[in-house]
TrEMBL record:
It comes from the Bacteria. It comes from Spirosoma validum. Keywords: Phosphoprotein. The modification 4-aspartylphosphate is found at D57. SMART domains: LytTR (SM00850), REC (SM00448). Pfam families: LytTR, Response_reg. Residues 149-247 form the HTH LytTR-type domain. This is Response regulator transcription factor. PROSITE patterns: HTH_LYTTR, RESPONSE_REGULATORY. The keyword Phosphoprotein applies. Residues 6-118 form the Response regulatory domain.
Length: 252
């Protein structure tokens, strides 16, 4: 049987640390090592204990979580970001974090993140080591995400298959879902919902996330969807969009 994954919690909020420590204690495949409230102590603990997994808050005094991430070597532990600010989600994934948990953290969402951690750990152990592992293969071989979303719409919970979503649009505190044949609006920001979507979905600008398989054409600065919508590709997103869509649509 594989040894439990050792975990370090880094958060300047004591209650947040206690919650994560309790969650870790409920999972047999995890082992809590320590908790700390700042990046300086975190670096010392990482060097001392060499944990397998970091639960890392972003908003911390002096040195924030993303700055701490940038200072770690390439063979660093896996990282799950924890924050109350959903706008950091995209920044976090640029650092190749394993997952992103939005506070207040639910235990079921915590378990989904741990499922991803184990999938990545198994892939690394079966290869030649984290330092030589191809990052594209790493993403493609993660366990599949949930195939549905549970959303609160008109005072009721509905189950929405991800395969029915064509694209999502940010409307401040709301997200507008365009489906094949209908649409709906949810009182939840797009950045929070993004953390629940799988690799099939791609952000093309600050306001839109599209399902890759719903794209029928790529134009100079836009994508066309099966619903005939044409959505603009943001300037800072163009290279990412082009690279990601190569696996779905042949380049024109």
């Amino acid at each position: 049987m594989a040894l439990p994954l050792s975990c370090l919690v880094i958060d300047d909020e004591p209650l947040a640390c206690q919650l994560l420590e309790r969650f870790i204690g409920r999972v047999d495949s995890l082992c809590w090592l320590s908790s700390c409230s700042n990046a300086v102590d975190a670096l010392s603990l990482i060097r001392q204990h060499r944990p397998n997994l970091l639960f890392l808050d972003i908003e911390m005094p002096e040195v924030n979580g993303l700055e701490l991430l940038s200072s770690l070597p390439t063979n660093r532990p896996q990282v799950i970001l924890t924050t109350a600010f959903p706008d950091y989600a995209l920044d976090g994934f640029e650092y190749d974090v394993t997952d992103y948990l939005l506070k207040p953290i639910r235990f079921d969402r915590f378990l989904r993140a741990i499922h991803k951690v184990h999938g990545r750990s198994e892939l690394i152990s079966s290869g030649s080591g984290a330092g030589n592992l191809d990052q594209t293969a790493l993403v493609e071989n993660l366990p599949p995400p949930d195939s549905t979303l549970w959303l609160k719409v008109n005072k009721q919970q509905i189950r929405l298959p991800l395969s029915e979503i064509v694209f999502l649009e940010s409307m401040k505190d709301y997200t507008h879902f365009t489906l094949e044949g209908q649409s709906l609006r949810v009182h939840q920001p797009l950045s929070a919902i993004e953390a629940l979507l799988g690799e099939e979905f791609l952000r093309i600008n600050r306001s839109f996330i599209v399902r890759c398989s719903a794209i029928t054409a790529i134009k100079a600065n836009a994508v066309e969807l099966i619903t005939k919508h044409q959505l603009p590709i943001g300037i800072t997103y163009r290279e990412l969009v082009r690279d990601r869509l190569r696996q779905y649509i042949s380049a024109p």
